[in-house]
Write a structure and sequence with these properties.
- The protein starts with about 20 loop residues before the first helix and ends in a 15-residue tail after the last strand.
- The strands form 5 sheets. A 6-stranded mixed sheet has the order 1-5-4-7-3-8, with helices on both faces. The chain has a 5-stranded antiparallel sheet with strand order 10-13-18-15-16, with no helix packed on it.
- It is elongated.
- The longest helix has 18 residues.
- It has about 425 residues and is of the alpha+beta class.
- Helix 5 packs across helix 7.
- The protein binds zinc ion.
- The site of zinc ion has 5 residues, from loops.
């Protein structure tokens, strides 16, 4: 077990008995799929051009293509912090799956041994833990419930009034309420009980304990899929961005939630974001699309089979303002993921500047184009304002002599149900 500190001892109430189903059953507003007009070049997920024939000679000069592992992962560009929430009025909601969560009485929790604090403010993050208990191979509901009862006893032994965390996921994928009152607060989407799972974060972070030890073992698939579903539900209920999912060790000196599970947190954030995205709007702009523009120094090549579409553009680095630009009609104010596709070749630039324009500012992301091509690489998630403009540009202003590449970009709107603070019944904005 990792160490936890108990919550404060101020008075509160235990309200776990009020489990209204109406909150679970409320209707969702399904977002319409937008269109982007002339800038749409291909449907999302369209495959790039077929591999060039071995003897093909490119129209423009390009560096030679070395052998490359087929499954080489994309290089990692910096992932700017996403905006906290979409601005009010920006987005309709999409339905998010509601997981089955066993209440404290269902899994046989003992009564709390004291008062449990509540806070009316919504939590602003999720902290992921492991219980550091055995990696049992009994994936049954009964086994999960038994471990939850054991955990509660361990936490009583710490002198705590109840289970420390808000929620628990068993290795078999059963989701349980932790501290009494956590479930009703989550279902109402308003406030939470103060936990005892991470010092300094107990009143602002939802703590999820994953049964097992993930220092070297990988969580079972059943646990993982339920954890994704649970986190998406929590984000949806409280208006928490999926980027605000962290490991216990991010806030406390602890090995929790284990090296393996901790290393999976980027994947967790990504899968939660995808679960929340629903029927989002998406557009691709290729270098042959109407929305693309570049000056005469940007030459055209079809050399690499990793290109998107028929060709891509390349240019030599220079300290000049000579951008290759991708213009998009952003349909509404909201949160958008920006991705780039390019051929990744040893000999292309290792620090190509991509500039993302949000409508209120810009961010520059350096991308290593010497590897990891032939796939969509995320440049981050941004709060954007509606309108037609250059949304992504590739700059020549970088070091060295290796080519910078402009090929295709994809913009995807992320949809969240965002609760208006102070208006608990106003579910959608
Ligand atoms: Zn922990």
């Amino acid at each position: 077990m990792h160490e936890h500190v108990p919550s404060s001892t101020a008075h509160s109430h235990d309200d776990h008995s009020s489990l209204g189903r109406r909150d679970l059953l409320r209707s969702a507003v399904v977002l319409g799929i937008g269109t982007a007009g002339a800038t749409i070049a291909a449907p999302a997920g369209a495959a790039p051009a077929a591999a060039a024939s071995a003897g093909a000679t490119p129209a423009g000069a390009a560096p030679p293509v070395p052998a490359r592992a087929a499954d080489q992962p994309p290089s990692l560009a910096p992932d700017p912090e996403a905006p906290a929430d979409a601005p009010p009025g920006a987005l309709a909601g999409v339905e998010v799956a509601v997981p089955t969560i066993a209440s404290c009485p269902t899994w046989g929790a003992a009564a709390a041994r004291g008062t449990i604090d509540t806070v009316s403010t919504n939590p602003n993050k999720i902290l992921i833990h492991h219980t550091a208990s055995a990696n049992v191979t009994d994936y049954s509901q009964a086994a999960g419930y038994q471990i939850a009862r054991d955990i509660q006893q361990w936490h009583f032994a710490n002198g705590w009034v109840d289970t420390g965390q808000h929620l628990t996921v068993s290795r078999g994928g059963y989701v349980m309420e932790g501290r009494h009152g956590s479930l009703s607060r989550l279902q109402s989407g308003s406030g939470t009980v103060v936990g005892a799972h991470a010092p300094g974060q107990n009143s602002q972070a939802i703590g999820i304990e994953n049964q097992g030890t993930y220092t070297s073992a990988t969580p079972p698939a059943q646990l993982w899929s339920r954890l994704v579903e649970l986190c998406a539900y929590i984000c949806d209920q409280y208006g928490i961005a999926p980027t605000q999912i962290y490991g216990h060790r991010d806030y406390t000196a602890t090995a929790c939630p284990g090296d393996v599970l901790y290393s999976m947190l980027p994947q967790l954030r990504s899968e939660v974001a995808a679960a929340l995205a629903g029927s989002s709007w998406s557009v691709i702009v290729d270098n042959t699309s109407a929305g693309f523009a570049a000056g005469g120094s940007w030459l055209t090549s079809s050399f690499s089979a990793e290109r998107y579409g028929a060709s891509y553009r390349y240019a030599t680095p220079a300290e000049v303002s000579d951008l290759a630009t991708f213009s998009v009609t952003i349909p509404s104010n909201g949160s958008y993921r920006v991705e780039a596709w390019f051929p990744g070749i040893d000999g292309y630039n290792t620090s190509t500047p991509f500039i993302v324009y949000t409508g209120t500012g810009s961010s520059t992301i350096r991308v290593d184009q010497s590897t990891g091509g032939g796939a969509w690489l995320s440049l981050g998630t941004y709060a954007m304002t509606a309108g037609t403009r250059t949304v992504v540009a590739v700059s020549r202003w970088t070091q060295g002599t290796a080519y910078v590449i402009a090929d295709a970009i994809r913009i995807t709107r992320l949809c969240f149900r965002v609760r208006r603070t102070g208006h608990p019944s106003d579910l959608y904005v």
